[in-house]
Amino acid sequence: MRKTLILTVALSLAAAGGASAHARLLSATPKAGTTVASPQMLVLHYSETIVPAVSSVAVAGPGGAPVATGPLALGDKDKRQVTVAFSAPLRPGAYKVAWKMHTPDDHNTDGTFAFKVK
Questions:
Q1: 22-117: which CATH topology?
Q2: Which of 39, 47, 78, 113 could bond to 24 as cystine, CB 3.0-4.6 Å?
Q3: How much of the chain is in helix, strand and coil states, percent to nearest 5?
């Protein structure tokens, strides 16, 4: 009886841990809150593999104007790394990045961060 109870609790905890796993943004270039020279692209590194076909990154520039970007691309060697190229140099001002990521285990997660261009 005791072994059954221990096994049941262990399996429940394992299932709960797996169900709550979502792709977390581990790092970004440019880094959140920094002021940088006009970057050519965003590089986002997540805690899990990303499915680019059902993921998105939107960038808003000074005054909230949308910023034109290229498509999401996964890193060649690391499928947890997402890159998004800017279609033109960024003007000085504040930028907000809003991301929505989807993982192969069908989890969705999202978030935002901001940076400035000098």
A1: Immunoglobulin-like (2.60.40)
A2: 47
A3: 20, 40, 40
Q: Go through 2-24 and write b for each residue having 16 or more CB atoms within 10 A of its CB, e for each that does not.
A: eeeeeeeeeeeeeeeeeeeeebe
Pairing label, strands 93-102, 108-117? antiparallel
Show the tokens assigned to 74.
């996964």
116 by DSSP, 3-state: which?
strand
Unique residue bearing structure tokens 């590089």 = 43
Burial zone of 99 (CB within 10 Å; 0-12 exposed, 13-18 middle, 19+ buried): buried
Contacts for 71 with CB less than 8 Å, ≥ 6 apart: 52, 84
Domain assignments of the chain as residue spans, ordered by start: 22-117
- Prediction pTM value: 0.81
